[in-house]
Amino acid sequence: MFRFVVLAGLLLVGVHGIGQDTCVVFQPSSSTISIATQGAAAPILLSADDWPGVQLAAADFATDIQKVTGVLPTLSNVTASNATTAISSKKSKAISTPIIVGTLGKSSLIAQIVNATNLDVSSIQGHWEAFMSLEVENPLPGIGNAYVIIGADKRGTIFALYDHSEQIGVSPWYWWADVPVTTHSGLFVESTGCSHGSPSVKYRGIFLNDEQPALQNWATEKFTNGTAADLGPFGAPFNHFFYAKLFELILRLKANYLWPAMWAGMFGIDDPQNQFFADYFGVVMGTSHQEPMMRSTPNEFSYEGKGPWDYETNANNINAYWRVGIERAKPYESIISIGMRGFGDMPLSETENIALLQNIVNTQQGIISSVMNEDSASVPQLWCLYQEVEGYYDDGLQVPDYVTLLWTDDNWGNVRRYPTQSERNRTGGAGIYYHVDFVGPPRDYKWITSSQIPKIYEQMSLAVEREANRIWILNVGDMKPYEREIEFFLNLGWDATRWNPDNLDSFISSWAQREFQVSSSDAATVTDIVGNLTRFNSRRKPELLNSTTFSLISYREAERVLDAWATLKDASINIYNSLSADFKPAFFQLVHHPVIASANLANMLIAAGQNNVRASQARLSANGLADNVETYFEEDYNIEHQYHTMLDGKWEHIMDQTHVGYFYWQQPMANTMPPITRVSSRKQVLAGVMRISPEGTLGAWPGDNPNQCGQGYNCPPPTVTLDNFDTFGTRYIDVGSGGPSSFTFTVTTNATWVKLSQTRGSVSPSAPETRVFASVNDWSQLPDGTSSATLTFTTTALNPFSQLPLSVPVNFNVTKHTLPSTFKGFVEGAGVISIEAAHTSRNTSVSGVSWKVLPRYGRTLSAITPWPHLGNNEANYTAGAGPSVEYDFYNFNTIGGSGNLTITTFVNPSFNAGEKDRPLGFAVQLDSQAPQALYFFPPAPPGGFPAAWGGNDGFAANNIISAVAQVTGVTPGPHTLKIAMIEPAVVVEKIVINTGVLMPSYLGPPESLIV
After folding, report:
1. Could you give phi then psi for residue 251, rounded to 5 degrees?
2. pTM over the 0.85 mark
3. CB burial string 44-64: b at 16+ within 10 A, e below
4. pLDDT digits (tens, 9 = 90+) for 770-792
């Protein structure tokens, strides 16, 4: 087991920091101070009266220097009078210029330096968690100069130390993700040092939640002996040994706040030292939205409460229960959650109303004031407006002005509500509770990373701009699958000014270089890997995928998805194989495992879908696909096992989460292989040895099949179509085996303009199908309009007794369109025009607002949104008058020749999160027609969701909303589509214009050709 020893800390009672200016260098110059060089290190001096957390961080800093250079600095508590003695008494190889560390208003050593040197500390004094460092001459008697690190408060000093640790080459994830330390022979700092003001968000933290089975099983093995005596009353293993590791990580990430594990845990009871150590380290504690008054409800109430959890009938016992929570937390730094929900994170009963909740809050204020012996207005508190509680607030519930309103997302990364302008002057401010992990409808997602950093940025930067910046808390589930996203969320809260849509890639590339010591080119590759991994997993959570999510017949969608996963997997394998053995475990955890595990899942599910289609088409290849599904299913466990057994089993159980075979929203009790079927490999198909399956249909020829035509029998030969602006430029026909007999085949055509990828081939049980592509030799040789040909597939069975020669005709109709030579833009192909929103023809600003690309955002490429976020002082516009983007396109058809087109704009499922009377909206306009205003997010009951949000095909599950506009009176030719801002914060990903042949698919057609 891991036992974290803090005794040493108790006795003391090159790499750029990501998103932070650097002051550490690895070569000396005339402007640098030595930290460690030539086998010597600068001594580190503190005063004994500084915060315990500062002492711990200073000890970590000394150890970090040793990890990097091999030299351990001396670490001493000194006074101004004996500082020189402490330095001179150390070994002769110590560097003479010391590092002096301390906190304003706490450290007597720092007070002496400030007073003696008139050091200007105004830039940090009184500023929450700010810090500075610099060279100071004659800081103390007998010391000529020193590198002085000063924090405005205890965490300011702690963050300064850990910031230097990160810069010298120690990742915050050195233990939690096994990132090797970057070694250097020398460490130096610029004499001007580093500094940072107050963070953008005051409290920045994480919430361990839904921690069973993975985190709890892992912690039980690693931090306890597994016996009842070593576990909490409900079996929780989360003791102070576990939390000490977590507290250090939180502080290294420059966070300061934690909601502890709660489903089987009771933070204050499981280990009585937990709260003490949180405060000792310097971490602010809280409890989740369902755990008021610093008590882990429902567990603590089940363990020692009296009566039912019903305030109407049991108020006295519940009040007494809450009082104990406040008394227990009184000595420590906390944010107290107030309000009340039902047991097990459920709403209060329908009979309990706003008046009752108002009374509860008033009573809680009295308890807080009584126990704390101060006005409750001075005690940090929050009320999380989660689901129905948001409805209570909107319906008139009065929340004390000094209480922070913690707004929430929809559990799926879309913030439900930000503070309105009238709410931004509350003294308690506002914050956001956000998720990268969730348990609940429409589906749990808690297995693997599936949140995009560009979307986290887009949603949370809006929170900064709308002043929801008092508290940010991130639901991280088991934490381990989400390391990178956790760090970005916290980093953005630490300094939101550092990041914008154009430099988010630099976060990933810097992270890759810090964690894996890769070259800049390999870091760019890792950035692409991460961007595509999170795109693929966020467009539909892996837990929601099934065998028909991606179309098996339209736009080659399923096959393109698998090709993309294969490319991604190959890129990850190449990086993994290029790393030294020391770095492979970290890369495996942070990048490679989610890539190969997710790719394997996608292959398994799509192969299952293809298996069922092939079986319905009487194709022998169904059996090979069934074998593949079984292989992928076993490989899923192999990948998990690889994670659990590396590093001598350090992470055993951390990937225990089930994720295959969901039957409803809750996690399956076991991974279950998707359904597969088989066709007889020994009995010949009734219609013959050969199966012909053209692209774009579930049908197969010869013989009867319900997907050949509406009648289902005696259907005509299949037809495939192609035009000269089709995205793929070809159509395929699969030639498959219909049983145990091998055969050869030929393909002939009656038109010279037809180009075939092959004109003959063979099929056998061991190679049960082949694919023939048909295209046009030279479009310039065809006349405008439609030309038709027949492709004839003829076979002779190798066993002459198995079947007479068989021929299957396939009609091949191609259409040639001619564009004006002057046209530039998107061109209709295959009956649609598909446009990635980022590929604009023009972008017109209004009042300094224009549409900006959000790179890597969304399901297919990128997205666009009005920028600046809140536009012209949060102004909105009438339809067609706002900032706009335009897309030039050319159509050859309208729907059924009617002059009608359907324009579908795919937008992020953002809530109407701004002013109450201003739902999100934008306008679409074709040419000079009247603009159409589209308000795409339906009204919902207070605190609730519109019906279209939920379900397995709702807004949340699909991670998209389709906003549809119909236009009439359209003729073939050039046109311009205009999309104009009505309200800020709309995010547009893709536009699809149906000219008559739009086919069903999950992601929509691939982007049309651009000329």
Report:
1. -70, -35
2. yes
3. bbbbeebbbbbbbbbbbbbbb
4. 999 999 999 999 999 999 999 99
